[in-house]
Amino acid sequence: SEPKPWAGRFTEATDAFVEAFTASIDFDKRLAPYDIQGSIAHAAMLKRIGVLSEEECEIITQGLEHIRGEIERGEFSWSVKLEDVHMNIEARLTERIGEAGKKLHTGRSRNDQVATDVRLYLRHEIDQIVREILRLQAALLDLAEREADTIMPGFTHLQVAQPVTFGHHLLAWYEMLSRDYERLLDCRKRVNIMPLGAAALAGTTFPLDRFYTAELLGFDRPAANSLDAVSDRDFAVEFIACASLIMMHLSRFSEELILWTSAQFGFIDLPDAFCTGSSIMPQKKNPDVPELVRGKSGRVFGHLMSLLTLMKSQPLAYNKDNQEDKEPLFDTVDTLRNCLRAFADMMPHVQPNRDSMYKSAQKGYATATDLADYLVRKGVPFRDAHEIVGKAVRLGIETGRDLSRLSLTELQQLSATIGPDVFEILTLEGSVRARNHFGGTAPNQVRAAVKQARRRLEEV
Ligand code: ARG
């Protein structure tokens, strides 16, 4: 069995259960590429300051590259006895290259090593996640442009409120994602700080050139305090908070898609490729993808709470508790990436049923506010106008007609100021067209907003 790198001061072997209990290799092996990247940079820096010879550095680097290949090909045998990814790789390196391998850990601790690995990993993942967000945003813009004239009911309290354009609704989703995108990029700034050189907690007696290592690894700078460097996990908490907001948004989108595909709304069809059937009810086509995304938001919110709780009472500096940061973080990354991918793949194939949306907007007196505004323009104070329109709505309900189906005489009995020009503003088209200002639902505005958003997307 592999001797443990720290076995020097021990007289008894580790209890077998404790060995398994304290090991993280089952999940932290995903950090292997970053562990290797960090070690190669550390070795190059050790060479630069004269701790490693040119030859030693060369052998270490080649050895690590070889191990990278073994891992990629699935030939590496991970050992629980060697606890974690760091010791597995280091032990294998020494097994392969001998003496030089034993020098790699000079001026380094697993504490600064693991914090560095996680940051390199997360930086890479943020860059992938951001690309998925942009892909979903681009899909939303295409759909919004196509549906700039499509009228649907807008809701408050899930009751028909005022007509809106479907394109406008999609652009609301787009805006939420824009903020998510900015938040992630901002979070990335705090991720991209290098712990290496902090060693176990107090720094090291070797004259490490931390700025050089940071540069090699693409970090903005080395962490300014060694105690903070090894124990800070707020970058991970912050990332999961960003992820939670994105999942919250995706969950809201999902909820709407689910409602809209139901026969009661009938606003959209989801592509067959993104739905599943029922094992008993032959007629069923279920919106599983949005339902799962809605459901998966819960686990990400849970991970946020779990990481906050993990950190909340830890004294400085490193504690083994920190090993528990990985599973919530990794699962957050996987969940978020998959959910964004599902949405970005699905949205271009969403089929709107323009007719059903239109018919639905015709029910529920969605143009009542337009009529009140009309009366105000004729000189009626808004509160009186509200009352008059309320009566018109009641007449409509009692006689089963929309406002536009009331006769001019009936309307004039409610207010003499009403003229034949009223019918134009009572149409759904008139209603959306009239909300023609920056941020409004008018088709013109939707098209302008799409154009502007495309310009912003092209800049990134
Ligand atoms: N596997 C550990 C972790 O994930 C690496 C650091 C261990 N350091 C230590 N002193 N036990 O946090």
Automatic annotation (TrEMBL):
Pathway: Amino-acid biosynthesis; L-arginine biosynthesis; L-arginine from L-ornithine and carbamoyl phosphate: step 3/3. Its main location: cytoplasm. Its EC number is 4.3.2.1. It catalyses: 2-(N(omega)-L-arginino)succinate = fumarate + L-arginine. Residues 365-432 form the Argininosuccinate lyase C-terminal domain. InterPro entries: Arg_succ_lyase_C, Argininosuccinate_lyase, Fumarase/histidase_N, Fumarate_lyase_CS, Fumarate_lyase_fam, Fumarate_lyase_N, L-Aspartase-like. GO terms for molecular function: argininosuccinate lyase activity. It is found in: Cytoplasm. Residues 8-302 form the Fumarate lyase N-terminal domain. It is an enzyme of class 4 (lyase). Keywords: Amino-acid biosynthesis, Arginine biosynthesis, Cytoplasm, Lyase. Belongs to the lyase 1 family. Argininosuccinate lyase subfamily. This is Argininosuccinate lyase. It comes from Methylocaldum szegediense.
